[in-house]
Amino acid sequence: MKKLIMVSNRLPISVTKKEGALKFYKSTGGLATGLSSFYRNYESKWIGWPGITSEKISKEDRKKIRESLLEENCYPVFISQSDLERYYYGFSNKTIWPLFHYFIQYAVFNKNFWEGYRKVNRTFAEEVVEFARKDAIIWIHDYHLMLLPRMIREKLPDASIGFFFHIPFPSFEVFRLLPWRNEILHGLLGADLIGFHSYDYARHFLSCIHRLLGYEHMLGQINVEDRIVRVDAFPMGIDFDKFAGAVKKPEIQKEAKRIKKKIGDRKMILSVDRLDYTKGIPQRLECFDLFLERNSEYREKVTLILVAVPSRTGVEHYQILKRQIEELVGKVNGRHGTIGWVPVWYLYRPLPFNKLVALYSAADVALVTPMRDGMNLISKEYIATKVDGRGVLILSERAGAASELGEAIIVNPDNREETVRAIKEALTMPEEEQIERNRTMQERLKRYNVTRWAQEFIDRLEHTKELQRALQVHRITPQVRKRIIGDYSKATRRLLLLDYDGTLVPFAGKPSRAQPDPELRKLLGGLTSDRRNEVVIISGRDRKTLDNWFGPFDVNLVGEHGVWIKERGEDWRLIEPLKNDWKEEIRPILELFTDRTPGSFIEEKEYSLVWHYRRANPELAAIRSRELKETLLDLTQNRDIGVLEGNKVIEVKKVGISKGKAALNWLEKENWDFILAIGDDWTDEDVFEVLPEKAYSVKVGFGFSRAAYRIESPEKVRELLGQLGGKSDE
Ligand code: ADQ
Questions:
Q1: Nearest to 501 by CA among 459, 425, 558, 448
Q2: Are residues 549 and 672 in the same domain?
Q3: Which CATH number does the domain housing residue 195 bear?
Q4: How do residues 604-625 score in pLDDT, each as one tens digit?
Q5: Is residue 510 domain-shared with residue 538, that is, in the same domain?
Q6: Which residues pair with 24 in a beta bridge?
Q7: E strand intervals along 127-216
């Protein structure tokens, strides 16, 4: 059985000590419970902080905690009070949380916090390394542990490490404010897979690593040293059946009835969040206030139940927010309340699962309007409990969930007018419409539930590891060199496929500087004058430049990355499209959009994938198609894949040209007994891919490659070609 190590700031079990006795509490709603069926396939362990600081426990306690937690497959990381202040309350909650949720004015940049963060990440790394066997899958969760991937990688270079962000990843302009930004990015890039709730967050991350560290990506794939790192979106699901099933339980039905009875014949609006400034609770109360002011007919006819779960109570902004909410609740109730009617019922406490589900089930409307939210599970849970289909969700467009729950009433939480209108719309929405909208969302949430989310993440991680192994590139050892030279000398028909810039000449900055120098001219002269050799220079340069530079040589040429080919003694000609491997990368993205856009579908053509949306709701389709186009353009920008917009369709197609296609022109010509291909960048990978097995493929420089061998630099390429008979040193 495979070993899975989950790592998060908090363990799913918390420990407290009261009057000398240790107590253990399982968190009920958390990730761990949702993933119970997924776990069965693994031998899993969870590493994290058990919620009690080291000062509060004796040596003996530690031992006891370790033993008891181990029975539940958990392993504690002990943290002292002062480290916790710096790492958790400080850097995690006063720096990263506000910054990543665009509350820049709340973000504190404090070196001491940062050092504490680094220290605790190091402690986590030591514990993980202790546990992880070579074949273990390590899945790290969230912004508290962004340095951990690299720290583990340093000790376990081959480990499978996945990292999932539960909060938004901000745009470059915001992320760059962080004084320790590069170290954080390097820390994350220690992972093999970095997952986000949405493509927007993934895009922001890719843009940050490009602009700050210079890493380019191809379809979310980055070359970090000699490893591939993949960045992708995995919108987190919920345990749908658990919520849908719970509503049918007699005790929950009884509780829901009790709530409804208390509310009377009024409509019930529900608001549930952790008490956090990102959730927009004061703004929501102000909207409710405005709603009652504008719609006097709803006075005494509607009740807002506002549940706020205590959170980070030690942080000042949260204390201020709590007071602010309490004042606002008082204000709204004072302004609108009557003897028999309290407009806002305010509960400041965590709720047991049954109570929470009963509230979801009883509510006519859920008002979920965060200012920013990585995903927001409340909105999904609410929809799951609507077994008879009745109920309306009002959802902020800034919650990650908004891109999956398009049938909800979507609002800009800063637009009060719009939110007030949305409340009215929700309260007056015909039942059939409520049912229709909810059924569609339910189908989607059922399919993409939390188990599938976790499984897809792990599958993707394993796939990335496989790819890394497949693309392992080996240095040319003296033995290999000897073999290449030996095979070359024995062969009578030899094909040499050579890239130009970065392979035969170093990158020269200005294009004109890269023209062949005398040494190279001599080398090429030597190679081409041997009648057993067919030399093809495969370049991204235009035809004119290639003609100017290589006119005097008896050489074959490929220009503009395979658009043009010129065989020896003939004229330039165009080539046509051929390969389709990109489809595997693009299809899952189209499938995800199809899932989220009811009525849309995918058509597969020989050289293209087409997303049709003419049968989808036009308004939703307008939003989705824009989003899809942006996503595709971003993901395909470094490849020769085109994204075309047609009439109610988005078409993705290979532009039909690659160096690989061009290389086939010669590869298929004869039965060569020696083939050597050398290249240095992404475009040369297409050449390596079409080579027969017996061919020698050589990548110049580092980075992942399909080539079998690597060589350090253009100088070394010249040396090798010289040894083959190019006589560069003459
Ligand atoms: P949160 O900010 O905590 O999570 P959310 O996604 O809504 O926000 O999750 C809250 C969870 O707590 C829900 O599963 C809910 O059932 C539970 N809960 C809510 N109210 C409760 C109450 N009164 N008592 C007990 N339990 C309650 C962070 C990110 C989100 C992201 C999640 C998951 O901020 O954006 O969606 O992680 O990745």
A1: 558
A2: yes
A3: 3.40.50.2000
A4: 866 678 898 887 877 678 778 8
A5: yes
A6: 15
A7: 137-141, 160-164, 193-196
Beta-bridged to residue 196, according to DSSP, are 233
Which residues have any ligand 1 atom within 6 Å of their CB?
29, 166-167, 236, 272, 274, 307, 309, 350-351, 356, 373-378, 381
For 348-364, give one letter per residue: b (16+ CB within 10 A) or e.
eebeeebbbbbbbbbbb
Of the candidate ranges 247-251, 346-350, 595-599, 718-722, the one whose mean pLDDT is the lowest: 595-599
> 700: domain CATH number?
3.40.50.1000
Shared domain for 672 and 602, answered yes or no, is no
**Which residue lies with its CA nearest to atom 3 of ligand 1?**
274
In terms of residue numbers, what domain contains 632? Answer: 583-654
Amino acid at 674: F
Which position has the token pair 């046509």? 576
**How large is the average pLDDT for residues 117-137?**
93
- Six-digit token pair at 664? 């086939």
Say if 204 falls within a structural domain: yes
What's the structural domain count of the chain?
4
Cα(361)–Cα(390) distance, integer angstroms:
9
Contact 162, 486 (CB under 8 A): no
Which residue, by CA, sits nearest to atom 17 of ligand 1? 29
Active site residue 680: no
Q: Is the pTM above the cut of 0.70?
A: yes
Ligand 1 center to residue 273 CA distance, Å?
7
Q: Considering the domain boundaries, does residue 460 fall inside one?
A: no
44 and 78 housed in the same domain: yes
Residues 359 and 307 in one domain: yes
Shared domain for 180 and 301, answered yes or no, is: no
Q: Which of 699, 638, 690, 629 shows the shortest CA–CA distance to 660? A: 690
User: 379 CA to middle of ligand 1, Å?
Assistant: 10
- Would you place residue 510 in the very low, low, confident or very high pLDDT band (cuts 50, 70, 90)? very low
Helix (H) or strand (E) holding 520, with range, is helix 518-529
Q: Is residue 670 part of a domain?
A: yes
Nearest ligand 1 atom to the CA of 274 is: 3
Q: What is the pLDDT of residues 185-236, one digit of tens each?
A: 999 999 999 999 998 999 999 999 988 998 878 778 888 876 889 999 999 9
pLDDT per position as a tens digit, 263-307: 999 999 999 999 999 999 999 999 999 999 999 999 999 999 999
**CA dist 243 → 271, 353, 387 (Å):** 17, 9, 10
Task: Report how far residue 454's alpha carbon sits from residue 236's, in angstroms, rounded to the nearest whole number.
Answer: 8
Which ranges of 156-280 does DSSP label H, i.e. alpha helix?
Answer: 172-175, 181-188, 199-208, 240-246, 250-263
Supply angle C-alpha 397, 398, 401, rounded to 5.
75
Report which DSSP code applies to 94.
I
pLDDT at residue 386 tops 60: yes
Distance between alpha carbon 597 and the CA centroid of its chain, in Å?
Answer: 20
For the chain, give percent helix, strand, coil, nearest 5.
45, 20, 30
Report if residue 375 sits inside a domain: yes
Which of 428, 447, 466 terminates a domain? The answer is 447
Choose one of 606, 634, 654: the last residue of a domain.
654
Output the average pLDDT for the chain.
Answer: 91
pLDDT tens digits along 649-704: 787 877 766 789 899 999 999 999 999 999 988 779 989 999 999 999 999 986 67
CA of 243 to the centre of ligand 1 (A): 14
CA distance 175 to 384: 35
Q: Are residues 407 and 297 in the same domain?
A: yes
Measured CA to CA, the distance from residue 137 to residue 152 in angstroms comes to 12
261: CB partners within 8 A, 6+ apart: none
